[in-house]
Design a protein that fits this description.
With about 240 residues, this protein is mainly α. The protein has nine helices and two strands; from the N terminus they run H-H-H-H-H-E-H-H-H-H-E. It has a two-stranded parallel ribbon with strand order 1-2. It is globular and about 55 Å long. The chain starts with a helix and ends with a strand.
């Protein structure tokens, strides 16, 4: 008979596949997302679809993962990184990651390949309202994203294996989840995935990974908006 640890690990792996697939295919279903083109009046139809896609990510990757954990016996959400307690303080070098991310993002955001995908909202004129909506939806999405990978999957893996194979498995699944975005972003997730896992194990929670991931996503969006030849930002008059 399977142990509770093996059961949690098996369900975590299964939900990484089924939950992510459900999020991906539903978010890419235009017949579904097209029904929600007027959520925010400041966004056009495509912009509202992007926000809806991020909300679906929060639902499938975050909230439903939390529901599964709550149903499973033996452990609670705090055991899967959803807590505010730090096992150890962050190492000094981790603070250098923010300027490194910003510097790298400033230069990579200008590449044609990046500008083909980002900003995800393709409106030509951005206002403060659009920027705020996009930023909040990004952060909510990334909380769900990190909770699935660095929360549910990573801590469930640690119940049956040592940290090194747990990080390797997590990074492999995380990279595969980016496969549809192309080889550049897929391979780029490998060092980021290892780093996020390490900091999560060091602190005992997902929040450092969420913060760094948000810095990456938001700075790339803002730098891409600035660099995009067909887009501009206009503050409220």
């Amino acid at each position: 008979m399977s142990s509770p640890e093996n059961l949690r690990f098996s369900i975590a792996i299964l939900w990484c596949v089924l939950g992510f697939a459900s999020y991906y295919f539903l978010s890419q279903n235009n017949s579904f997302t097209g029904k929600f083109k007027s959520i925010f009046s400041v966004l056009d139809g495509q912009g509202n679809q992007v926000v809806l896609q991020r909300a679906l990510g929060l639902l499938f990757l975050g909230l439903l993962s939390a529901l599964i954990i709550a149903i499973l016996p033996g452990k609670g959400l705090q055991d899967f990184g959803l807590n505010l307690t730090f096992i150890e303080p962050l190492p000094w070098w981790s603070w250098l990651l923010v300027p490194v991310i910003l510097i790298l993002g400033y230069f990579t955001a200008k590449s044609p390949a990046n500008l083909q995908q980002y900003p995800q909202i393709r409106m030509q004129t951005w206002t403060p309202g659009i920027l705020i909506i996009s930023s909040i939806s990004w952060i909510m999405f990334l909380i769900g994203y990190e909770f699935l990978f660095r929360g549910f999957l990573l801590f469930a893996s640690l119940e049956i294996m040592n940290p090194v194979p747990a990080i390797a498995l997590n990074t492999a699944v995380y990279a595969f989840a980016h496969f549809y975005k192309g080889p550049g972003e897929t391979f780029g997730t490998i060092p980021a995935g290892i780093l996020f896992c390490y900091l999560t194990l060091l602190t005992g929670n997902i929040w450092t990974a969420v913060f760094l991931h948000a810095v990456m996503a938001l700075s790339n969006e803002w730098f891409s908006l600035k660099a995009h030849p067909d887009m501009q930002f206009k503050s409220a008059s």
